[in-house]
Amino acid sequence: MKRFLTVVLVVGLAVGFMGCGKKADETKPIEDVKAEAQKMEAGELEDMVACYKDALTAKETDLKDIQAKIKDVPPTEALGDKAKALKDDLAASQKSVKALAERMDIYKAELAKKTAEAAKDAKK
User: Are 52 and 58 in contact (CB under 8 A)?
Assistant: First the structure.
């Protein structure tokens, strides 16, 4: 288990360092994300979508790990502090995934819009 966690951590750090120049920010206000996306070029939008996909993949891995830990909690401790802490972690991770996905969808929509505009301009 320790070896698996070490591998996940190393891979996560490697992806983080070579990944996107900008960071996937789940706390950035939606209006700011929309304004930023409108100012970006298609290539920048693609980079942001990739960055958010990487962040979502990492969060989904965290979710699976937490769910596995919850399953390992014995029934006698299901109402205990450890189980409660794990359930709180799960809820926080789910909230984070939702926030990241919402922001990624904004970048994807803007990318689709710019791609359609470019295709329309190319036909002229």
Answer: no
Whole-model pTM?
Answer: 0.76
Give CA torsion, residues 88, 92, 95, 101, to 10 deg: -140
Domain count, the chain: 1
- The token duo for 25 is 């920010």
Q: What's the rounded Cα separation, in Å, for the pair 24 and 10?
A: 19
pLDDT tens-digit map of 59-90: 999 999 999 999 998 988 888 888 899 999 99
Residue numbers of the domain that contains 109:
2-123
Tokens of 16: 């983080």
Q: What are the tens digits of pLDDT across the range 90-117?
A: 999 999 999 999 999 999 999 999 999 8
Residue 79 neighbours by CB under 8 Å, 6+ apart: none
d(CA 96, CA 21) in angstroms, rounded, equals 21
